[in-house]
Amino acid sequence: MVNKWVRSPVRVIEWMARQLHNIAAYLIGAMMLIVVFDVTMRYVFVRPTYWAVDVSEYILLYSTILAAAWLLREERHVRITILTDRLGPKAKSITHFITSVVGVIICGVAAQETTTILLAKIARGAMVPRTFEIPQWTIIVGVPIGLAFLGIYFIRSAVVTVMSARHQETPEK
């Protein structure tokens, strides 16, 4: 019975993280089309767009933060393994657990701080004075969401590491 209650929220989180990843992928595709459009307008029609760079910057931010949790889940993120490759299995597990816990803490603090900033920007109604004016909060609204999901997956990573270590310590009968 407990497994049913645990599995259902996990499935929802998995689905939501996958959707954020898909949104990030579509945004990258849109950014590619925007850049092609901008280059075409600039060099073929000599009518450059003034908004393409701004939109591409926002897309880059969103695509990175929205895909981060799914990339961590799939272990497709960048890893620097120069030290951990030299460790034994137990030391590797301990290191992985510690980095996961540090990741949870950093994501938690950063999500809380960016949420505070987001709410302040919404309250102030500040605008971004660039090529086109948009509310400042729209630029960072995805950051606390992405960080929250990333923190959840760091928790998952820590739990999986502990469970794997326990499974390896259990002698075969």
Annotation keywords:
173 residues, two-stranded antiparallel ribbon, 2 strands, 76% helix, elongated
Secondary structure elements and pairings:
Layout: H1 2-43, H2 52-73, H3 89-124, E1 127-128, E2 134-135, H4 137-140, H5 142-169
Antiparallel strand pairs: 1-2
Care to describe what's here?
By secondary structure, this protein is an all-alpha fold. It has one domain. Helix content is 76%, strand content 2%. The protein is built from 5 helices and 2 strands, in the order H-H-H-E-E-H-H. It has helices at residues 2-43, 52-73, 89-124, 137-140, 142-169; strands spanning 127-128, 134-135. It has a two-stranded antiparallel sheet. Strand 1 (127-128) and strand 2 (134-135) form a beta hairpin. Helix 1 (2-43) packs antiparallel against helix 2 (52-73). The longest helix is centred in the N-terminal third of the chain and has 42 residues, at 2-43. The chain is elongated and about 65 Å long. The protein starts with a helix and ends with a helix. The mean pLDDT is 88.
Average predicted local confidence, pLDDT: 88
Low-confidence runs (pLDDT<50, min 5 residues)? none
The H/E string reads HHHEEHH
| Overall geometry | elongated
The number of helical elements comes to: 5
Note the gap between the termini: 28 Å
| Structural class label | mainly alpha
How does the major sheet shape up? 2 strands, antiparallel
Taken together, the total number of domains comes to 1
Indicate the percent of residues in helices: over 70%
Report the radius of gyration as a whole number of Å: 21 Å
**Biggest sheet strand line-up:** 1-2
Strand content bin = under 5%
The total of beta strands comes to: 2
